């Protein structure tokens, strides 16, 4: 079985799985779909996984792409993911989530934020809805300041700073995240309207300004605790997130 699969050259296998999306500078290479069975609350759910890479060099030749990546420092390039469920391209109604990577919340299950909860809950909502996509944005750690800077911001937060004050005291703006590449990938996968799971109006505005048909917004509440109460309140009071009576602000 292994010998039979190796008889097919990698280039022949990858040709139909890599597409090029034009960007303002360089290009976006999107590879997929790839079957990804996911353990979601004890049930195995089959998603279709894509990953994309922003690169300054433009080529439509898969062999050149392979050659470039073999010698590139991939740590310097954005490598994000999309988990697609159902007939995302053709279904009339689809849910999407633009989820910023959170090393502490998504991986460790930190209660300082609600990101880990939102990651799994948005996937659950998409499956229950019947179709949708989770965009996992790799360069958005700490609202765009990176993991090490986020760690320093946490130190400041343990000494009385709120999220906004901590980021700004380190020389950053409150939120430096950019959704342009994610929107380009979304356009490549679907042209019909989408409903966005978020309480952050900036995400909604980014999609609308890009000309995407947005059918509406679905809030994503939950995982409120003593550890993230100030964090959640700061989102509404200082970052402009949309609150909801009887629920705790989050995004």
How many independent structural domains? 1
Termini separation comes to 46 Å
Q: Which stretches are low in confidence, meaning pLDDT under 50 for 5 or more residues running? A: 246-251
Kindly provide the name of the CATH class. Answer: Alpha Beta
Structural class: alpha/beta
**Main sheet makeup:** 8 strands, mixed
- Report the β-strand fraction as a percent range: 15-25%
Number of strands: 8
The coarse silhouette is globular
Task: State the CATH architecture.
Answer: 3-Layer(aba) Sandwich
H-E string: HHEEEHEEHHEHHHHEHEH
Using the coordinates shown, work out and report the CATH topology: Rossmann fold
At the fourth CATH level, what is the homologous superfamily? Answer: GTP cyclohydrolase II
Strand order of the largest sheet: 1-2-3-4-6-5-7-8
- Supply Rg: 19 Å
| Helix proportion | 25-40%
Mean pLDDT, to the nearest integer, reads 83
Q: How many helices?
A: 11
Question: Would you mind describing this structure in some detail?
Answer:
There is one protein chain. With 251 residues, the chain is α/β, with parallel strands linked by helices. It has one domain (2-140, 177-237): Rossmann fold (3-Layer(aba) Sandwich). It contains 11 helices and 8 strands. The protein has helices at 2-6, 10-14, 62-71, 103-107, 115-129, 141-144, 147-157, 163-169, 180-189, 201-209, 229-237, and strands at 18-22, 27-40, 43-55, 79-85, 95-100, 132-137, 194-197, 214-218. The chain has an 8-stranded mixed beta sheet, sandwiched between helices. It is globular. The N and C termini lie far apart (46 Å).
